[in-house]
Amino acid sequence: MEENQKKSKFGLGLIIGSIVGAITAFFFSPKSGPENRKMVAKKIKELEKLLKEKEVDKKVKEIFNEVTEESKKIYLQAKQWLIEELAALKKAIDEIDKEEYLKAVNTTVKKVEKEFKKDSKKVEKLKKQLEGEWKKIKNQKE
C-alpha cells in the first residue's frame, strides 16, 4: 500500500509541476490578461494529456531492461522535463514543429545524463523513446 501512495504522490507532483510551468509561462508572456488565461488553460490541458502514461512499466522496461523505482523515476522525470521544455516555447502543441520538439528532447536527455549519470546506451534508448513521442504529438495536432 505504501508503494501505491508513493506512486500517487509522485504522479501528483508531476501534475503540479506541469501546472506551475504553465503558470510561469503565463506571467512571462507579453500577451494581455484574457489571452494569457486562454493560453494557460489550453497549455494545462495539453500538458495533462502528455502526462497521461498508461504503459510506463512497459516503456521503462524497453529503455532500462528492468522496472525499478529508480528507472521509473528517471523516465517520469525525463517526461516532466520534456513537457517543461515544450511549455517554455510559449506555443500551443499544434504550433510546435519537429525541429523544436527534437531540440527539447536533446535538452531533456542532457539533463538526464547530468542528473542521473546513466550509461550512454540507456540514455540513447530514452532519447529514441522520447523522439518517438513526436508521433503522438503530431497525431494530437490533426
Would you write up a description of this structure?
This protein has 142 residues and is an all-alpha fold. The protein has one domain (2-141). It has six helices and no strands. The protein has helices at 2-27, 33-51, 56-64, 69-88, 98-116, 120-141. α1 packs parallel to α4 (69-88) and α5 (98-116) packs antiparallel against α6. The longest helix has 26 residues, at 2-27. It is elongated, with a radius of gyration of 15 Å.
Mean pLDDT: 75
Distance between the termini: 40 Å
Count the helices. How many?
6
Q: Give me the secondary-structure category.
A: mainly alpha
Total beta strands: 0
The rounded Rg comes to: 15 Å
Strand content: under 5%
Biggest pleated sheet = none
Low-confidence stretches: none
The amount of helix comes to over 70%
Question: Any idea how many domains?
Answer: 1
Shape: elongated
**N-to-C order of helices and strands:** HHHHHH
List keywords for this structure.
142 residues, mainly alpha, single chain
Gist?
The protein is mostly helical and 142 residues long.
What's the structural blueprint in terms of helices and strands?
Elements: H1 2-27, H2 33-51, H3 56-64, H4 69-88, H5 98-116, H6 120-141
